[in-house]
Design brief:
Organism: Zophobas morio
Structural class: mainly alpha
Largest sheet: 3 strands, antiparallel
Domain Tyr recombinase: 117-344
Number of helices: 15
Distance between the termini: 92 Å
Protein name: Tyr recombinase domain-containing protein
GO molecular function, one term: DNA binding
Helix content: 40-55%
Number of strands: 7
Order of helices and strands: HHHHHHHHEEEHEEHHHHHHEE
GO biological process, one term: DNA integration
Strand order of the largest sheet: 1-2-3
Length: 389
């Protein structure tokens, strides 16, 4: 074992590592931008070295960002200006530290034990086992049952449940003012703007579960509200259970204090361990509910454009880390691939055996009829209505 705690890589080794991970096009672009920046500094008589102050560097970059021009004197496009300023800003202000960090991360990604992993999904069997752990007739059991049901159906982020308030839920009514049986949910706070006052995401709904009323999110939510005593002044939905809730003199099921972030953060991991999941081999967290929702919906055939309406992402690229391929999902895709290949082969065989006149007729009419004494010919196995009969 080495006596040195920190690495002993030389500056040349670090530079070589950075060079190895940088694509050639990126190098050429950076060099081109830097040459233009050097010409700008030469025209302005700017000189900077190791003794140049931070204020001076900031002034030079500000001047460059506003006054840069093409060779012909015209302005660059808006996106190009942004790229050029950021590129030179990183080169001047960070002096390669960002590139060194990226090179180190790339090298560590090769090692599975060092690689960053997303929260693992739960199988439906594992998810149902977790739900069976809890008794909704207890404060802790009721809250956790609603958390797991709503967390999956609303695709909550890992820490989203901590910030949920009763103001984020509203019973939906139709145009006549009658309840629809659904509850609208809109997380006014967002991942980047906690506690904002504007709608930042599309609404989602909790719908009545008529198939299994035991895990109906609408029913569980209303039961949670009914157990909030008059002493509750906080609007947070998830509250600290009252240990003395069974006592006749108790104020109610819950204390007037929300569940802490660290406490709620252990819920799914603890439940997974209780049903026998090896949490040392799988990364299980509250965020696993979100990953499970996305993966299961994708397995059911829901498209990415619909998925981002559930997750609240701005584009489909952001949900890629959530799409985790399990054995069943892989088998379904292979099965579809094989079925499609077989169908194409059968179609080619039929086309080879068809007379030319029949091929021409098929191209003109999806469904055609043979002489009046015969039944209609159905090439695409669809329902035929014979209006001549």
């Amino acid at each position: 074992m080495s006596n040195f705690r920190f690495g002993r890589n030389t500056p040349k080794e670090i530079d070589d590592s950075i060079t190895n991970i940088t694509p050639l096009n990126t190098k050429n672009s950076r060099n081109s931008i830097w040459r233009q920046f050097e010409k700008f500094c030469g025209e302005r008589k700017y000189v900077f070295d190791g003794n140049t102050s931070t204020e001076k560097l900031a002034f030079i970059l500000k001047d460059w960002g506003y006054n840069m021009k093409k060779v012909d004197g015209n302005d660059y496009k808006e996106a190009v200006i942004k790229t050029m300023v950021e590129c030179n800003g990183k080169a001047v202000a960070r002096t390669g530290s960002r590139n060194a960090r990226d090179a180190k991360r790339r090298n560590l990604q090769i090692q599975p034990e060092k690689r960053k992993t997303s929260s693992s999904i739960l199988t439906l069997e594992e998810y149902n086992k977790i739900l069976k752990i809890y008794n909704e007739d207890t404060p802790d059991g009721l809250q956790k049952m609603f958390f797991y049901v709503a967390g999956l159906e609303l695709a909550w982020r890992g820490c989203e449940g901590v910030n949920v308030t009763i103001k984020h839920f509203k019973e939906e009514s139709d145009n006549c003012g009658l309840p629809t049986g659904r509850i609208e949910y809109n997380c006014i706070f967002s991942k980047t703007a906690q506690g904002g006052s504007h709608k930042l995401t599309d609404s989602k709904w909790l719908a009545t579960n008529t198939t299994d009323p035991r895990i109906c999110p609408v029913r569980l939510y209303k039961k949670m509200l009914s157990k909030r005593g008059k002493h509750i002044t906080t609007d947070r939905l998830f509250l600290t259970p009252n240990p003395a809730w069974r006592e006749p003199s108790s104020v109610g099921w819950f204390k007037n204090s929300p569940v802490g972030r660290n406490e709620m953060g252990k819920w799914t991991r603890t439940a997974a361990e209780e049903i026998g999941i090896e949490i040392k081999k799988k990364k299980i967290s509250n965020h696993s509910l979100r990953s499970t929702a996305v993966s299961q919906l994708a397995k059911a055939g829901v498209g990415e454009e619909q998925l981002i309406k559930i997750t609240g992402h701005a584009n489909t690229f952001s949900i890629k880390p959530y799409l985790q391929l399990d054995g069943d999902h892989h088998y379904q895709m292979i099965d579809k691939l094989r079925a499609n290949s077989t169908a194409m082969e059968e179609s080619n065989n039929k086309s080879t055996n068809c007379a030319p006149s029949a091929l021409v007729q098929m191209s003109k009419n999806i469904v055609t009829t043979s002489p009046s004494t015969q039944t209609p010919v159905n090439y695409y196995n669809c329902t035929i209505i014979n209006y001549n009969s």
